[in-house]
Amino acid sequence: MASEDVVGKRTGESAVNTIVNLAEEAKLAREGVKAPGHAVLSICKSLVAGGVAGGVSRTAVAPLERLKILLQVQNPHSIKYNGTIQGLKYIWRTEGFRGLFKGNGTNCLRIVPNSAVKFFSYEQASSAILWLYRQQPGKEDAELTPVLRLGAGACAGIIAMSATYPMDMVRGRITVQTEKSPYQYRGMLHALGMIYREEGFRALYRGWLPSVIGVIPYVGLNFAVYESLKDWLIKTKPFGIAENSELSVVTRLACGAAAGTVGQTVAYPLDVIRRRMQMVGWKDAASIVTAEGRSKELLEYTGMIDAFRKTVRHEGFRALYKGLIPNSVKVVPSIAIAFVTYEAVKDILGVEMRISD
Known about the structure:
Structural class: mainly alpha
CATH superfamily: Mitochondrial carrier domain
């Protein structure tokens, strides 16, 4: 009987503790404070949503992504890819269906964590920037402005790019391999190991500086244009497109398309230079990028400025926009799909905070 009393007492205490804990969580929820477990779960869901958004959007435009990189680094004296339609047909004819998606697996391995970190970093950076902005006298009730969103997006882009840059470097080299080039890299891990052994650790971050400089306007403008355009549409309701402070999927896709167009046009030359710098040090890249018997000067860049100078001198200013058309065709749906997928997955997972908030 004594043991039964002890068990009953413990059971009663456990029930009381459970009720107290639930009451505490309810109180925290009413006060707008999330329990630690809830916060961790929310972070995980946000990261998952960002990762899914990145994987879905990049896979949808993988053939255009590969063609863009091939156009960026191809030998200007031996043109194989001449435009979007012709380039895609050439890849299909010479490498088949799989050739259109070559490097996409590696790209997804890179873009999933990159996208997850980018979206999550944007949410955290925008919250922090807004908090700092509200500390100024008379700004207590201020909202995010396009400039603040641009700053938050730039922070998110730098963090995500730096965290996953070696994978981007490897993806560029794997994507450039064609049916006639030495298949030096069998996959991401193999490529990482070979580059580290043959070229050193610094080679994994070759082209990082133009990447970071380019990602500031690219990601910053993507978030700033997307969110500002959405806010404007919701507040002004032109043509009755906004109902109950919500936009349709089609309208959000259009906002994402506009954001992608602005961002990629501003940052594209830096993307070209990044790709070319990533080829430096790869002994088999000469068979892909330079003509036979021609000096390898185009592959020997001492830095970002030198790469800009040599590219313009040897190929003209237009070379800085090689691959822009397939990239434009790719970026517009890619950014649009990424934003809409991100918000849709967060809705499915039940995450309260969205980038619009």
